[in-house]
Specification:
The protein has one domain (16-109, 119-148). It is built from six helices and no strands. The protein has helices spanning 15-42, 47-73, 79-107, 110-115, 122-145, 148-153.
């Protein structure tokens, strides 16, 4: 049985891989966010510092996992293709995360919001975590490629010629 290879151009976007990576990233992000909130509730005296830490770390770890899943889900042949998929995963996850966290924000009563204090520099921490998440998604996708980059470029002998 002959296998036909179809050339699709320099970059082919695989939406199944992007959706898989995005859903893993959002699920991981939500888990880490709730876990960080629970730990922050236990440490009341250092809650502001802890909030800044898990606000930065949670999306970076989550999007690293999302980029890794996206690059492992489909046959992505190069680092540029992996970076493209990772950036689309990052953008799609940011939109999903913003929608999800805004919906969660609607559920928090306004009385609880009045008692919360936002640490100084929190906006910079959020901006840094968004940028760090993009870098982590690209890094995760590149690591997810593993040795497949070399295998994808190498010509292999037909099965009949192998010993």
């Amino acid at each position: 049985m002959a296998v036909e290879r179809v050339e699709v151009g320099p970059y082919a976007t695989h939406w199944s891989a992007i959706l898989a990576g995005s859903f893993v990233a959002v699920g991981c992000w939500l888990f880490l966010f709730v876990l960080g909130g629970a730990i922050g509730a236990l440490a009341r005296e250092a809650a502001g510092v802890w909030t800044a830490i898990y606000t930065v770390v949670a999306p970076i770890v989550a999007l690293f996992a999302g980029g890794l899943v996206a690059s492992r889900s489909r046959w992505i042949l190069g680092r540029a293709d992996a970076a493209l998929h990772a950036l689309v995963v990052w953008g799609f996850t940011m939109v999903l995360g913003a929608l999800l966290f805004s919906l969660l924000g609607l559920l928090v009563p306004s009385i609880a919001l009045q008692r919360m204090t936002v640490p100084s520099g929190y906006a910079w921490a959020v901006a840094g975590s968004i940028f760090g998440a993009a870098v982590a998604a690209i890094l995760g996708a590149t690591i997810g490629l593993g040795r497949r980059v070399e295998l994808g470029r190498r010509e292999e002998a037909p099965r009949e010629a192998r010993p």
